[in-house]
Amino acid sequence: MTAYLVILGGFAGLLGAMLVVELLGRAGREPFRPAARALDVALVSRTGRWVVCGIWLWIGFHFLAR
Amino acid sequence: MSGEQLAARGVQVGRWDAPLIPLYAMLAALCRPLTAPAAVVVLVPGAALLALAAWRCVPQGRAVCSRRSVVPWVVLALLFGGWELTAAVWGNDNAHPTFSLLLAPVLETYPGRVVGWLVWLGVGRWLVTR
How many CB atoms lie within 10 A of CB B38? Predict the structure, then answer.
Protein backbone atom coordinates (compact mmCIF):
# COMPACT_ATOMS: atom_id res chain seq x y z
CA MET A 1 0.00 0.00 0.00
CA THR A 2 1.51 3.30 -1.01
CA ALA A 3 2.03 6.19 1.34
CA TYR A 4 -0.45 8.22 -0.71
CA LEU A 5 -3.24 5.72 -0.06
CA VAL A 6 -2.38 5.53 3.63
CA ILE A 7 -2.53 9.30 3.99
CA LEU A 8 -5.68 9.57 1.89
CA GLY A 9 -7.28 6.82 3.93
CA GLY A 10 -6.40 8.60 7.14
CA PHE A 11 -8.04 11.84 6.03
CA ALA A 12 -11.08 9.98 4.70
CA GLY A 13 -11.40 8.04 7.95
CA LEU A 14 -11.21 11.17 10.07
CA LEU A 15 -13.73 13.02 7.92
CA GLY A 16 -15.98 9.99 8.09
CA ALA A 17 -15.66 9.90 11.87
CA MET A 18 -16.62 13.59 12.01
CA LEU A 19 -19.67 12.84 9.90
CA VAL A 20 -20.63 9.98 12.22
CA VAL A 21 -20.28 12.17 15.32
CA GLU A 22 -22.36 14.89 13.63
CA LEU A 23 -25.11 12.44 12.72
CA LEU A 24 -25.09 10.88 16.20
CA GLY A 25 -25.30 14.37 17.68
CA ARG A 26 -28.23 15.31 15.49
CA ALA A 27 -29.93 12.05 16.45
CA GLY A 28 -29.58 13.02 20.10
CA ARG A 29 -27.33 10.12 21.06
CA GLU A 30 -25.39 10.88 24.25
CA PRO A 31 -22.80 12.26 24.70
CA PHE A 32 -22.56 13.45 21.12
CA ARG A 33 -23.63 16.87 19.96
CA PRO A 34 -23.57 18.47 16.49
CA ALA A 35 -20.50 20.55 15.73
CA ALA A 36 -22.45 23.81 15.93
CA ARG A 37 -23.63 23.06 19.46
CA ALA A 38 -20.15 21.96 20.50
CA LEU A 39 -18.74 25.23 19.19
CA ASP A 40 -21.12 27.13 21.46
CA VAL A 41 -18.94 26.11 24.40
CA ALA A 42 -16.12 28.17 22.89
CA LEU A 43 -18.32 30.95 21.52
CA VAL A 44 -19.93 31.69 24.88
CA SER A 45 -16.87 33.69 25.95
CA ARG A 46 -15.19 36.60 24.22
CA THR A 47 -11.80 34.83 24.34
CA GLY A 48 -13.33 31.73 22.82
CA ARG A 49 -14.88 33.81 20.04
CA TRP A 50 -11.51 35.36 19.28
CA VAL A 51 -9.85 31.91 19.14
CA VAL A 52 -12.52 30.36 16.93
CA CYS A 53 -12.61 33.35 14.60
CA GLY A 54 -8.82 33.37 14.47
CA ILE A 55 -8.84 29.71 13.43
CA TRP A 56 -11.49 30.54 10.82
CA LEU A 57 -9.28 33.32 9.47
CA TRP A 58 -6.25 31.03 9.37
CA ILE A 59 -8.20 28.38 7.46
CA GLY A 60 -9.29 30.97 4.90
CA PHE A 61 -5.78 32.32 4.52
CA HIS A 62 -4.30 28.82 4.24
CA PHE A 63 -6.70 27.44 1.65
CA LEU A 64 -7.83 30.51 -0.28
CA ALA A 65 -4.84 32.83 -0.27
CA ARG A 66 -1.83 30.53 -0.13
CA MET B 1 -27.81 47.67 24.53
CA SER B 2 -29.72 44.63 25.78
CA GLY B 3 -29.20 41.07 24.67
CA GLU B 4 -32.44 41.11 22.73
CA GLN B 5 -31.40 44.26 20.89
CA LEU B 6 -28.07 42.72 20.03
CA ALA B 7 -29.76 39.57 18.78
CA ALA B 8 -32.04 41.74 16.65
CA ARG B 9 -28.96 43.51 15.28
CA GLY B 10 -27.64 40.09 14.33
CA VAL B 11 -30.82 39.40 12.36
CA GLN B 12 -30.48 42.77 10.62
CA VAL B 13 -26.92 41.87 9.63
CA GLY B 14 -28.28 38.76 7.98
CA ARG B 15 -30.62 40.73 5.73
CA TRP B 16 -28.04 42.60 3.70
CA ASP B 17 -25.36 40.00 3.41
CA ALA B 18 -27.51 37.50 1.49
CA PRO B 19 -26.52 38.91 -1.93
CA LEU B 20 -23.19 40.26 -0.68
CA ILE B 21 -21.60 36.93 0.21
CA PRO B 22 -22.07 35.24 -3.20
CA LEU B 23 -20.97 38.42 -4.97
CA TYR B 24 -17.86 38.72 -2.82
CA ALA B 25 -17.14 35.00 -3.33
CA MET B 26 -17.34 35.32 -7.11
CA LEU B 27 -15.08 38.37 -7.14
CA ALA B 28 -12.59 37.04 -4.59
CA ALA B 29 -12.28 33.73 -6.45
CA LEU B 30 -10.87 35.68 -9.39
CA CYS B 31 -7.70 36.21 -7.34
CA ARG B 32 -5.18 33.48 -7.93
CA PRO B 33 -3.73 31.81 -4.81
CA LEU B 34 -0.27 32.86 -3.66
CA THR B 35 -0.81 36.43 -4.77
CA ALA B 36 -1.11 39.64 -2.77
CA PRO B 37 -4.70 40.34 -3.93
CA ALA B 38 -5.70 36.88 -2.70
CA ALA B 39 -4.28 37.68 0.73
CA VAL B 40 -6.06 41.04 0.81
CA VAL B 41 -9.48 39.62 -0.10
CA VAL B 42 -9.11 37.08 2.72
CA LEU B 43 -7.90 39.58 5.29
CA VAL B 44 -10.70 42.11 4.60
CA PRO B 45 -13.61 39.91 5.76
CA GLY B 46 -11.33 38.27 8.29
CA ALA B 47 -10.53 41.56 9.98
CA ALA B 48 -14.20 42.57 9.83
CA LEU B 49 -15.27 39.35 11.47
CA LEU B 50 -12.65 39.61 14.20
CA ALA B 51 -13.82 43.15 14.90
CA LEU B 52 -17.44 41.99 15.09
CA ALA B 53 -16.47 39.08 17.32
CA ALA B 54 -14.72 41.47 19.68
CA TRP B 55 -17.58 44.00 19.63
CA ARG B 56 -20.62 41.76 20.05
CA CYS B 57 -21.72 40.84 23.51
CA VAL B 58 -22.54 37.21 24.07
CA PRO B 59 -26.31 36.74 24.47
CA GLN B 60 -27.00 35.93 28.08
CA GLY B 61 -28.70 32.75 29.14
CA ARG B 62 -27.88 30.78 26.02
CA ALA B 63 -27.91 27.06 26.81
CA VAL B 64 -24.66 25.36 25.91
CA CYS B 65 -23.95 21.65 25.87
CA SER B 66 -21.75 19.99 28.46
CA ARG B 67 -17.98 19.95 28.08
CA ARG B 68 -18.22 16.14 27.93
CA SER B 69 -19.99 16.40 24.59
CA VAL B 70 -17.19 18.58 23.24
CA VAL B 71 -14.56 15.86 23.85
CA PRO B 72 -15.26 13.84 20.65
CA TRP B 73 -14.85 16.97 18.53
CA VAL B 74 -11.67 18.04 20.31
CA VAL B 75 -10.22 14.54 19.85
CA LEU B 76 -11.12 14.47 16.16
CA ALA B 77 -9.72 17.97 15.60
CA LEU B 78 -6.46 17.03 17.30
CA LEU B 79 -6.25 13.80 15.28
CA PHE B 80 -6.89 15.71 12.07
CA GLY B 81 -4.21 18.24 12.92
CA GLY B 82 -1.82 15.48 13.85
CA TRP B 83 -2.47 13.62 10.61
CA GLU B 84 -1.93 16.82 8.64
CA LEU B 85 1.36 17.31 10.47
CA THR B 86 2.31 13.69 9.76
CA ALA B 87 1.70 14.18 6.04
CA ALA B 88 3.66 17.43 6.08
CA VAL B 89 6.63 15.84 7.82
CA TRP B 90 6.40 12.66 5.74
CA GLY B 91 6.99 14.61 2.55
CA ASN B 92 4.34 17.26 1.83
CA ASP B 93 4.46 16.37 -1.88
CA ASN B 94 2.27 14.58 -4.39
CA ALA B 95 3.23 11.20 -2.93
CA HIS B 96 2.59 12.37 0.65
CA PRO B 97 -0.09 15.05 0.32
CA THR B 98 -1.33 17.25 3.09
CA PHE B 99 -5.01 18.13 3.13
CA SER B 100 -4.33 21.41 1.38
CA LEU B 101 -2.43 19.56 -1.36
CA LEU B 102 -5.38 17.21 -1.77
CA LEU B 103 -7.71 20.19 -2.18
CA ALA B 104 -5.36 22.05 -4.50
CA PRO B 105 -6.74 20.56 -7.77
CA VAL B 106 -10.21 21.75 -6.77
CA LEU B 107 -9.14 25.17 -5.55
CA GLU B 108 -7.07 25.77 -8.69
CA THR B 109 -10.30 25.99 -10.68
CA TYR B 110 -12.54 29.06 -10.54
CA PRO B 111 -15.73 27.10 -9.67
CA GLY B 112 -13.83 25.28 -6.96
CA ARG B 113 -12.56 28.55 -5.48
CA VAL B 114 -16.06 30.06 -5.59
CA VAL B 115 -17.39 27.09 -3.64
CA GLY B 116 -14.51 27.37 -1.19
CA TRP B 117 -15.19 31.07 -0.72
CA LEU B 118 -18.93 30.49 -0.25
CA VAL B 119 -18.27 27.86 2.40
CA TRP B 120 -15.70 30.00 4.22
CA LEU B 121 -17.76 33.18 4.13
CA GLY B 122 -20.88 31.23 5.12
CA VAL B 123 -19.12 29.81 8.17
CA GLY B 124 -17.85 33.28 9.03
CA ARG B 125 -21.35 34.74 8.80
CA TRP B 126 -22.65 31.93 10.99
CA LEU B 127 -19.96 32.62 13.60
CA VAL B 128 -20.86 36.31 13.74
CA THR B 129 -24.58 35.72 14.01
CA ARG B 130 -24.32 32.78 16.43
Answer: 20
